[in-house]
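Thread: quick sanity check before group meeting

JM: Hey all, I'm pulling together slides for Thursday and realized we never actually wrote out the predicted structure for the chain we discussed last week. Dropping the sequence here so it's in one place. If anyone has concerns about the input, flag it before I start.
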Amino acid sequence: MNQKKSRVYLNFSFFILSFLIVAFSQPAWIGYLGIVASSLGYFLFWFSIYKVNSTKLKVILSFVWFFFVQAIWLSWLTSTKYQGKLIFLVYASLLVWFAIEFSVVSYVFLKNKKLEFKKIFLVASIWTVLEWSKLFIMCGFPFNQVGLALTNHHISMQLASIIGIFGLSFYVIFVNLTALKAVIDKSFKVGVLWVILAFFPYLYGYFHEKIYEKKFELSNKLNVCLVQTAILPEEKVLTKNYFDHFVSPMYQWQRIISFINKKNVDDLDLIVLPEAALPFSANDHFYPFEKVQILFSQNFGEEVLSKLPILKEPFARQYKDDWYVSNSYFAKALSNIYQSEIAIGFDDFDQKVDKSYNAAFYFSPKLDTYKRYEKQVLVPMGEYIPFSFLAKMALEKYGIASSFTQGFESKIFSDKNYSFSICYEEIYPNIMRKAKNKGAKCFVNLTNDAYFSKSKLFRQHFEHAKIRAVENGIPLIRACNTGVSAVVDSFGRVVDAIYKEDEAKALFVKAPLFSYKTIYSLFGDYLVIFFSFAVIVSYYIKRKMRI
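JM (edit): ok, ran it. Output follows.
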C-alpha cells in the first residue's frame, strides 16, 4: 500500500513538474526552460499518466494539463481594458479547442501500452498537422507552437531554416516520446538515440552559423532609425470616456521628430514607424500648413522649408484661401529632409475603389509620392466584422462602423528589396515565405500591440517574429508602438532592441543585410506537412490491411 501511495505521489509530482516546465518554457516567460521542455517536458507528463488503467481518465488528464498550459501561454487574452469581457469567451474557447487536440494525441498514443516508433511518428505527425491547420481557420491563429521550446537560443533555432516552426513542433513531440519509449522499454539504445536527438538542434545550429560566419561579417549594413511611440489608443485617437487623455496629432508628430533628432545622423538609410502611427488616414488633410511650417522650422531651421513637399494632392489640399496637409505630407517631408527611405503605417481610404485599408507606406526621396502595401491578414472585430449579426455590437461597443479591405499581395519596395508586413502577419510562415520568394531580402514589420497592454503579447509576438528571419534566411526590422522594436539578423540574433513596451524613443541601429537561401524558403511547410500526412495515411492503411 505504501509503495502504491509513493508511486501516486511520484506521478503527481511529475504531473506538476511537467506543467511548470512546459507552461513557462516559452521565450517570453523563462526561455531557458525550453531546453528541458523540448527534450523532457512532455515526456514527464505522459510518463506520469502512462500507468493509469482508464483510457478515459488519461484523456481527461491530458485535457486538463494542456488546458492550463495554454492558459499560461495565452494569458495575454485576459487583457480587458480595450477588448471588454467578451475576450474571456474567446480565451476560454481557444483553451478548450487546443486542449481537445492534445487529448486526441494523447489518446492515440496511450490507448494501449505498446510503444513502437511507428506510433511515435504517427503522434508527432498528427500533432503537426493539427498545429498547421490553425493557419486556415477564420483568419488563422498561428500562436504558440510546441516547437517554440527550441527557439529561446538562436543556435537551436537554426533547424527552422530547414523544417520551419511546424517541423520544430514535430521534432519536440518526437524527442519527448522517444524518451518515454526509452524509459518504459528500459532500452539503453533508445536512450542513446534520445540523447543524440536532444542535442542535435544545438550541434546543427552551431555549424550552420559557422558556415556563413565570414560572409555575414562582410555583408553590407543599413543605418536604421526605429521609432517606438509608446502611445495608448485613447491618447492617439479621441475615445469616448477618455477625452482628457487625447494627445494632439500635431504634438504626436512633434514627439516623433524630436525622437529622431536626438541623435545627429547624417546618413540614415531607413526610418521605420509603427502600424497606424498617427490618427486620421494617410491623406486626411487635417493639419494647417502654416502651423506645419512653424513646426519644421523650429526643429530644423528656416532653410529646411525648401525641402518640404510641393502643396498638391495627395499631400495637401486647399480649402478657401488656406492650405491643409496630411500625415503623408509629414512622412514625405521627413524623407526629403533626412534623404532617407521611410516605412510608416497609416489607415487609408482609396477613393478610386471606395475601399479602406490598414496599410504600410513607403516614402523615398526618389519618389514624388509613395507606394503602399495593404495588410493581408485582418483581425476579427478589430479590423473586420466576420459575421453580419456582430455589426451592431461592434458599432456600439468598439465604435467599428465598417471593415478594412483585405490585401492579397506581398510587395517589394526599394532597391534593397524590403517586404512589408503589418502586425501579426509576420507570425504567419506562409505569408512571409511568399514575400521571400518574391524577392524580399529584408523583412520590415510595423506593429501596434497596445490593445493588449501590460500583458505578454508584445514579447510573445516578437519571439514568433524572429523565427521568420531564420526560416527564410533574411533579416527583420520592426518598429512597434509598444515594444519590441528591434533589428534581428538572418540567424534570429537580436542586434539591438527596445524591450520595454512603454518606452518612447528612437533606436538607431546598424542592421546587417546578409541573407541566404534556405531549404524552408524553397519548400515551405509542405516538406513537413506532406511527410506528416504520408505517415498518417500509411499507418492507417497498414493497420486496415492487418485487420
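AS: nice. The first strand starts at residue 221 and ends at 228. Residues 254 and 356 are 27 Å apart (CA to CA).
JM: adding both to the slides.
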